[in-house]
């Protein structure tokens, strides 16, 4: 029986997109965007050299950032396998004599974190994966002819065989992120959906091999958690009025794979606000890093994660093990709740008193700081977490808000 207790507790995880595309350093879809043939793309295999891929450093960085689980791409859409698969020679074992999944699961476990794997149901390398509107060969002048002889049944066997390898060869796997299904037709080309993967059989295989493992929704059939991507839901996600377990996956800069020229780095303030926003709605955030072509965490990503880790060190209790609070939040921020503690996260510094409509009847205004003083600061410091103590015996109608933050003037 899968249990999402650890998942709801962790609230915050690290996504790691690493593969041949990291060496291209132009987005994990480079093979598709640039319509690279297998031969063109082969150069990244021939020159793959992850000498700075240090799974232990990645796991330690995740832990220091306050994350409770780490998810590695075992195979992305390009079909390159980061483990010692016996079903293909398009693997890291063949390329550099390393089983990077083995290194990863050992390192994550050594840091006491939960192990997550990502696996693409799309495979642009496999000879039986039929060309469709998502395929790099779609624009090839003889792409339609390419599908003669291709057999998705053989590809399904390969895909299911891969999942069996990953779920039997690496100990307990806590989380599996399948990616992704697109049933719609487009430009005269077919899409692909659950039937193409035999999703029901694949999910049953997961349940058989790893009964406690959480599986996401991207086989195209319901499973254990829902995966909004690159956006923030605006309310707790429910189905038929029942709250669903969900996790928003986000990039640091708009690219999942390492992108050398991408400077759109989200700030640590924005990312922590996205994290607490997700938790306030009962969800998780999976924050991605794209290690560079040698496997190292990019310095700008390490710096951002370091700032987030500093914030989490102060405010961990308002995130880890916390969740949705049934009170209307003030306009300046959101609530998260852990047990009988209510946490107010101020995204914008209040213009005056913070009005807490959701707590009407018990409190109506909050003084900042429990000594009644005002913390003088600029709006650039709104990254505060106020630990709302429901006062016992204090004056009715006022609520002290504890801002456990270093006063800027000391
Ligand atoms: O196409 C992939 C993309 O490259 C990336 O892996 C994301 C991560 O959730 N999933 C797909 C797009 O939804």
TrEMBL record:
<dbReference type="Pfam" id="PF01120">
    <property type="entry name" value="Alpha_L_fucos"/>
</dbReference>
<keyword id="KW-0732">Signal</keyword>
<keyword id="KW-0326">Glycosidase</keyword>
<comment type="similarity">
    <text>Belongs to the glycosyl hydrolase 29 family.</text>
</comment>
<keyword id="KW-0378">Hydrolase</keyword>
<dbReference type="InterPro" id="IPR016286">
    <property type="entry name" value="FUC_metazoa-typ"/>
</dbReference>
<protein>
    <recommendedName>
        <fullName>alpha-L-fucosidase</fullName>
        <ecNumber>3.2.1.51</ecNumber>
    </recommendedName>
</protein>
<dbReference type="InterPro" id="IPR000933">
    <property type="entry name" value="Glyco_hydro_29"/>
</dbReference>
<dbReference type="InterPro" id="IPR017853">
    <property type="entry name" value="GH"/>
</dbReference>
<comment type="function">
    <text>Alpha-L-fucosidase is responsible for hydrolyzing the alpha-1,6-linked fucose joined to the reducing-end N-acetylglucosamine of the carbohydrate moieties of glycoproteins.</text>
</comment>
<feature type="domain" description="Glycoside hydrolase family 29 N-terminal">
    <location>
        <begin position="3"/>
        <end position="314"/>
    </location>
</feature>
<dbReference type="InterPro" id="IPR057739">
    <property type="entry name" value="Glyco_hydro_29_N"/>
</dbReference>
């Amino acid at each position: 029986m899968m249990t999402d207790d650890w998942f709801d507790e962790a609230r915050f995880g690290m996504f790691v997109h690493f593969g041949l595309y990291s060496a291209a350093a132009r987005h994990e879809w480079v093979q598709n965007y640039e319509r690279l043939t297998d031969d063109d793309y082969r150069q990244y295999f021939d020159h793959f050299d992850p000498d700075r891929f240090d799974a232990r450093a990645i796991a330690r960085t995740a832990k220091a950032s306050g994350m409770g689980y780490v998810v590695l791409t075992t195979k992305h859409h390009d079909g390159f396998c980061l483990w010692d698969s016996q079903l293909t020679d398009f693997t890291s074992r063949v390329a550099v004599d390393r089983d990077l999944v083995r290194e990863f699961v050992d390192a994550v476990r050594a840091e006491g974190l939960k192990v997550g794997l990502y696996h693409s149901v799309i495979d642009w390398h496999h000879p039986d994966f039929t060309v469709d509107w998502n395929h790099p060969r779609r624009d090839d002048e003889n792409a339609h002819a390419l599908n003669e002889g291709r057999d998705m049944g053989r590809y399904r066997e390969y895909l299911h065989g891969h999942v069996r390898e990953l779920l039997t060869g690496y100990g307990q796997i806590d989380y599996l992120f399948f990616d992704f299904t697109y049933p719609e037709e487009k430009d005269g080309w077919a899409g692909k959906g659950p039937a193409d993967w035999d999703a029901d059989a694949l999910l049953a295989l997961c349940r058989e091999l790893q009964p406690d493992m959480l599986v996401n929704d991207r086989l195209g059939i319901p499973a254990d958690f829902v995966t909004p991507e690159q956006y923030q839901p605006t309310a707790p996600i429910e189905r038929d009025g029942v709250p669903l377990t969900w996790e928003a996956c986000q990039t640091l800069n708009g690219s999942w794979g390492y992108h050398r020229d991408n400077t759109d780095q989200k700030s640590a303030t924005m990312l922590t606000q996205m994290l607490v926003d997700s938790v306030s709605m009962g969800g998780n955030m999976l924050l991605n890093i794209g290690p560079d072509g040698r496997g190292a965490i990019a310095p700008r990503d390490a710096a951002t994660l370091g700032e987030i880790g500093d914030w989490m060190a102060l405010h961990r209790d308002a995130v880890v093990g916390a969740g949705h609070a049934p009170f209307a939040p003030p306009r300046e921020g959101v609530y998260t709740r852990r047990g009988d503690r209510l946490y107010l996260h101020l995204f914008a510094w209040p213009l005056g008193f913070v009005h807490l409509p959701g707590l009407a009847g018990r409190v109506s205004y909050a003084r900042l700081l429990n000594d009644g003083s005002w913390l003088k600061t600029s709006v650039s410091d709104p990254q505060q977490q106020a630990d709302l103590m429901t006062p016992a015996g204090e004056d009715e109608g006022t609520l002290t808000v504890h801002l456990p933050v270093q006063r800027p003037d000391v």
